[in-house]
Amino acid sequence: MCGRFASYNAYPKLARRLGVVVAEEGPPARYNIPPGTWITGFRQVAHNVPPEQLKLWWGYRPKWATGKAAQPINARAETVATSGYFKQAFARQRCLIPADGWFEWLATETGKQPHYLTRADREPIAFAGIYAEREDGSLGCVILTEPARGSAAEVHDRMPLILDDASLEPWLDPDLTDRETIRQVVRHLDAGLIEHWPVSRAVNRPGNDEDAGLINPA
């Protein structure tokens, strides 16, 4: 799964790479982003216009769903294209969420130990996401997940779906709606690029997201 992540350098790097039209100043650095908060993403609304910055609530409940409907933060990549809750957004409302890394918790004899997972080359990470309009008119999103690969599997059995550089533009392409075509042209990041290390348990406090030391090795 992906229940906490960091984004401090990734936004400007991915924005430049995608040619994003930035509507406002970029988001502040955050080192421990929890669900149920506002995050920043990128989308493309038409093929002939560049991608744009997007303000997203991390929690997905389409406006057509009832008030008691689930508000997930993740969606499984294996079933997102066929699930009644997600398939319309998968076809037409895909987004990228810039990150530098994410956190998972490993069970130990002394309790759950948080680990920080990131790219070994420190290049930005692009989470695959989908979004939908919420009842209040804002946009809510989920981050797609897949079975953990490479060293990430040492910490958890799931991980966010991270796209490789060649897949960023196809993922955002609003004219690309067929699920099989999307699966053929979109690839996840090479698992060999992922590394992790234990970090301070201070990351357990969701409100603590301004401390750059949270990602340092414990």
TrEMBL record:
GO biological process: protein-DNA covalent cross-linking repair; proteolysis
Keyword field: Covalent protein-DNA linkage, DNA damage, DNA-binding, Hydrolase, Lyase, Protease
Gene3D superfamilies, per the entry: SOS response associated peptidase-like (3.90.1680.10)
SUPFAM superfamilies: BB1717-like (SSF143081)
Protein EC: 3.4.-.-
Any one GO molecular function term: single-stranded DNA binding
Class in the EC hierarchy, top level: hydrolase
Family: Belongs to the SOS response-associated peptidase family.
Name used for this protein in its record: Abasic site processing protein
Origin species: Halomonas chromatireducens
